[in-house]
């Protein structure tokens, strides 16, 4: 166990992101009276349990193998996954918002403070270090996506101007990073197999941006529709690219499939709530079915890898 703990991956928080996203999906479906509350409650507390378990294991790693944590924190790719920790807290805040408001507010304050610190450190790290273009991959979006999650619950706790600040920072960097990624994808070497599943992260920024904008502005306007349709575009694009995902060896990065699928499912429910157009209801059920199947499959593969002792290994 001690040897395994040394290489416990920070990327494990991507599991919490996927599960928390599914909890929020079930919450929205319960709110719309499309699912019984029990599904939401089971998923909610299961996600909290997984989050606490992963956090305890990584804390033990930090205590016993602090040099490995420092290596993770200064790694050109793994540094981006530290923001998955704060994003997990923010997602738990959203998931608990209607169930336990005080806990939701506590999670939101902790998540916002931690994410702000990690986001600023990560952006400073990008600026202060020289990167070759091949190091760029969709995982770079993770610190930025978190900014647009903050307003979703944040509009309940602070003035809207605060939420607009985080939304604006997230939107600004999403456009810049996507431009860099498109340059890397078209004109340079293909992504390593391990990071091909992270292409699904491309769905998340516009989908979360749409939800955040609706929460702040409460307006079904041109900009809201633009964000929503861009997220659908990326979903269709990934469907066209389905051959790139065939015969991939399983890595924990496969959890990158899950959270963006939850995001676009929630965005579809919100679009139906505010526009009352039936197409969004059908899309909500369609994406939820895909999301549940995907998370079930990835969870099954993860349990298999854990049993084979192939998760906590030296990735270098």
From TrEMBL:
CDD domains (alphabetical): TDT_SLAC1_like (cd09323)
Membrane topology of this protein: Multi-pass membrane protein
Xref: InterPro entries: SLAC1/Mae1/Ssu1/TehA, Tellurite_res_ion_channel, Voltage-dep_anion_channel_sf
Alphabetic keyword roster: Membrane, Transmembrane, Transmembrane helix
GO molecular function: monoatomic cation efflux transmembrane transporter activity
Cellular compartment(s): Membrane
Segments forming a coiled coil: none
CC per GO annotation: plasma membrane
Ranges that cross the membrane: 7-26, 38-60, 81-100, 106-127, 139-158, 164-183, 195-216, 222-241, 253-274, 280-300
Name under which the protein is recorded: C4-dicarboxylate ABC transporter
UniProt keyword Membrane present: yes
């Amino acid at each position: 166990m001690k040897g395994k703990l040394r290489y416990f991956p920070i990327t494990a928080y991507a599991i919490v992101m996927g599960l928390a996203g599914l909890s929020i999906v079930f919450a929205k479906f319960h709110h719309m009276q499309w699912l019984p509350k029990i599904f939401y409650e089971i998923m909610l507390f299961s996600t909290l349990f997984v989050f606490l378990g992963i956090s305890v294991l990584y804390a033990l790693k930090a205590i016993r193998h602090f040099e490995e944590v420092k290596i993770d924190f200064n790694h050109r790719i793994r540094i981006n996954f530290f923001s998955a920790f704060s994003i997990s807290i923010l997602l738990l805040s959203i998931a608990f918002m209607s169930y336990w408001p005080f806990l939701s507010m506590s999670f939101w304050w902790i998540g916002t403070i931690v994410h702000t610190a990690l986001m600023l450190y990560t952006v400073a790290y990008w600026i202060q270090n020289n990167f070759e273009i091949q190091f760029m991959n969709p995982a770079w979006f993770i610190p930025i996506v978190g900014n647009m999650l903050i307003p979703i619950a944040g509009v309940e706790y602070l003035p809207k101007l605060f939420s607009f600040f985080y939304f604006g920072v997230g939107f600004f960097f999403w456009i810049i990073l996507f431009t860099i990624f498109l340059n890397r994808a078209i004109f340079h070497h293909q992504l390593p197999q391990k990071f091909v599943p992270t292409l699904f992260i491309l769905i998340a920024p516009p989908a979360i941006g749409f939800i955040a904008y609706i929460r702040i502005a409460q307006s079904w306007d041109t900009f809201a529709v633009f964000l929503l349709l861009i997220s659908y575009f990326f979903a269709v694009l990934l469907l066209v690219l389905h051959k790139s995902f065939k015969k991939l060896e399983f890595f924990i990065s496969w959890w990158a499939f899950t959270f963006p699928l939850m995001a676009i499912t929630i965005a579809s429910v919100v679009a139906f709530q505010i526009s009352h157009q039936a197409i969004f209801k059908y899309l909500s059920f369609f994406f939820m079915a895909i999301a549940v199947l995907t998370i079930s499959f990835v969870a099954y593969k993860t349990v298999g890898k854990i049993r084979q002792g192939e998760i906590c290994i030296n990735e270098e």
